[in-house]
Design goal:
The complex is a heterodimer of chains A (about 170) and B (about 190). Chain A is an alpha/beta fold and about 170 residues long. Chain A has 8 helices and 6 strands; from the N terminus they run αβαβαβααβαβαβα. Chain A has a 6-stranded parallel sheet with strand order 2-1-3-4-6-5, sandwiched between helices. In chain A, strand 1, helix 2 and strand 2 form a beta-alpha-beta unit. In chain A, helix 1 runs parallel beside helix 7 and helix 3 runs parallel beside helix 5. The longest helix of chain A is centred in the C-terminal third of the chain and has 15 residues. Chain A is globular and about 40 Å long. The N and C termini of chain A lie close together (about 10 Å). Chain B has one domain: Rossmann fold (3-Layer(aba) Sandwich), CATH 3.40.50. Helix content of chain B is about 45%, strand content about 20%. In chain B, helix 1 crosses helix 2 and helix 1 runs parallel beside helix 7. Chain B is globular and about 50 Å long. The relative contact order of chain B is 0.20. The chains are: A alpha/beta (about 170), B alpha/beta (about 190). At the A-B interface, strand 2, helix 3 and helix 5 of A face helix 3, helix 5 and helix 8 of B.
Chain lengths: ~170, ~190
Amino acid sequence: MPVSVANSKLIYDALKACDVKIISALPETWLVHLIRMADEDPDMILVRLAKEEEGIGISAGAHLAGVNSALLMQNHGFLAAINPIVSLALLYKVPLLLLISYRGHMGEKDPWQTQGGMATEPILRALNIPTWHLTSPNDVYRRLKDAQTLALASLHPVAVLLSRELMWEE
Amino acid sequence: MLRADALQAIYPELEQRIVVTIMGAVAAELYMLGHRHNFFYLEHSMGLASSMGLGIALAMPEHKVIVLDGDGSLLMNLGTLSTMARYKPGNLLHIVFDNESLLSVGGFPTATSTGTDLAGIARASGIPSVMEAHTPDSLKASVTQALTGNTLTTIIAKVEAIGPKSFHMDLPLLENRFQFKRCLEAMQRQKAQ
């Protein structure tokens, strides 16, 4: 599977540098290595979810308990989690570090991913969620750190879109 | 049993502990018994009180966390039972008040009124300890038992579909949120000392 191990590792190391202690996730092709790395790390609590909206609750609880967390999801998972993003994270001013694999965007061959791809950024904008694109390995560390910093300072969700260029090698 | 009586019976167990409640009648009735900074009332995001409780329980393994859920809320997020069961935090107690009704929005019957068995779903999801309570005394005994042990527990408490006269709480959402966070931080510090 041509998912980039090296770039997944860069992202994982950046999350560790952000002192992330809890990661919630639902499997997605582009996320397999990241999830495996979290699973193999004895200092990381990986919570495998049934549905992405649970992750918003888990991260809200972790934040109120003073622990940094991150959420790994596909963009369709982000779409599934919109109500709690609005009625928990935005309503209660809860910072979220959303790492979203950006399926259905440029280069997507799977027709079933394309509608979600086209809806992702307009919906992030509608929710006023600041968004970084991760396309270059050189940006990974800085952009994840900056995204977390803004989330914690603004008490607001921040999204990092994991692009095909970064995640998929072909 | 009336939920208000049930809450009163277990209030001494809740008083010093981290509590996350759902919205509506449960929140208002707990608030009326006496608000504490260690109580968080999730006034929206229906279904996620248990997920929040799981997040807190995983982040604060030295502390007991009690979630006050409802049948309507749990039915909206049944996956939470499988996720909680997967990680089995022994410091998490999940109490579900089942009044077979979406009381706060007009009393429409939920699926538990037509036979859906939440205790059965919890057991089949892998929750290691599932109990059912029909009286305030049996609820209190179940809660005490769960808090004494270190096993993830779901208690289904069957209650009547009767709520408080008023749902008013003199506590803005954000005040509750910041109070609660400060309180949890203080509890963490206290435990660390």
